[in-house]
Write a structure and sequence with these properties.
The complex is a heterodimer.
Chain A (H helix, E strand, L loop, with lengths): L6 H8 L2 H23 L13 H28 L2 H33 L7 H22 L3 H16 L1 H11 L19 H40 L1
Helix pairs in contact in A: 2-8, 3-4, 3-6, 3-8, 4-5, 4-8, 5-6, 5-7
Chain B lengths: L1 H6 L4 H38 L3 H8 L2 H7 L6
The chains are: A mainly alpha, B mainly alpha.
Chain lengths: 235, 75
């Protein structure tokens, strides 16, 4: 099964895909922004400040999702010695880190009108900050270590340690008394969010997912060309 | 309507700041990754151009190299 992930097999797809993904991203983002800023209703408690949710929540979801995928790829890549899995994980990291930063900053901006403060050492916010530090460690490890075996080992350790934090982020609002509100959307039970707000939220999530796919494809192609550059040196 | 969209009952500054930060972050990340991509691709083209005909023919036999050299791999 792993042979389908060989760079020589997928480069012809990954090199052509970005322009189509970019086109789709612009369309979905335009629809999402129209819904989020104009069409969706204001909240009866938070008024218009609730609109920050449409960038804050998708960014948080995607940064958590990307870190989980990076961890799985690193573990499987390390066990089966699949170098391309590490390359895919490395290419996912920049968008994961940026989405994490967006979640922290937009959360802070949302905190000012709703809690009266830009920052609180609340369990959810602090655990998201810790995730950002793990992302930073992961990205820095790729820059610091040049030896492949060493960087594969270090990045795998960073992701395994970091993944412990992911359920803590998810359940922090249930386990502790936090300023942060509990989850409004549940896959297994009834969500407390109205459809008029859920639709723009899901549209923005789709737009953000497409953006992370776009960045991943561009970064992955860059990494492959970098490897091919080294190959030309050896000819 | 425009005024209401801009001020949003006094919350406009927070909403627009959050959306602006997000879009600026997107644009910055996109430009950084695109610059890295163009740099590596130009480096590859320059290296490929300096190869002798025998080595160039061998390099061209690999499908990835052919894809990199073609225009389809650019955004």
């Amino acid at each position: 099964m792993f042979k389908y992930f060989e760079p020589s097999k997928i480069f012809s797809i990954t090199s052509r895909a970005p322009k189509y993904v970019l086109f789709l991203f612009i369309i979905i983002l335009s629809i999402g922004l129209t819904e989020a800023l104009i069409l969706s209703p204001e909240d009866y408690k938070q008024s218009h400040s609730v609109r920050i949710m449409y960038v804050h929540v998708p960014a948080a979801w995607i940064s958590l999702g990307i870190f989980s995928v990076i961890t799985i790829l690193s573990i499987v890549g390390y066990i089966f010695k699949l170098r391309n899995f590490f390359l895919i994980a490395k290419s996912l990291a920049p968008s994961g880190l940026v989405f994490n930063i967006i979640a922290l900053v937009t959360g802070s901006i949302w905190g000012k009108p709703t809690w009266g403060t830009w920052w609180a050492w609340d369990a959810r916010i602090t655990s998201m900050l810790i995730l950002a530090l793990f992302y930073l460690m992961y990205v820095l490890a790729w820059r610091i270590f040049e030896d492949n075996d060493k960087v594969f080992k270090v990045t795998s350790i960073v992701t395994i340690l970091g993944i412990i934090n992911v359920p803590i982020i998810k359940y922090s609002v249930d386990w502790w008394n936090t300023l942060h509100q509990p989850a409004s959307i549940n896959i297994l039970s009834k969500s407390s969010i109205d459809i008029s707000m859920l639709f723009p939220l899901l549209t923005m999530t789709a737009a953000f997912a497409l953006f992370s796919l776009l960045i991943f494809l561009m970064k992955y192609n860059t990494e492959l060309i970098k490897i091919k550059n080294k190959g030309l040196d050896r000819l | 309507m425009i005024e209401s969209l801009f001020f949003m009952n006094g919350y406009g500054q927070y909403v627009w700041l959050a959306f602006s930060f997000t879009l600026v972050s997107f644009l910055t990340l996109f430009l950084i990754i695109k610059t890295q991509y163009n740099k590596e691709k130009n480096k590859f083209i320059a290296k490929f151009g300096s190869l002798n005909s025998e080595k160039a023919a061998f390099a061209r036999s690999q499908s990835i190299n052919k894809d990199i050299l073609s225009n389809t791999s650019s955004i």
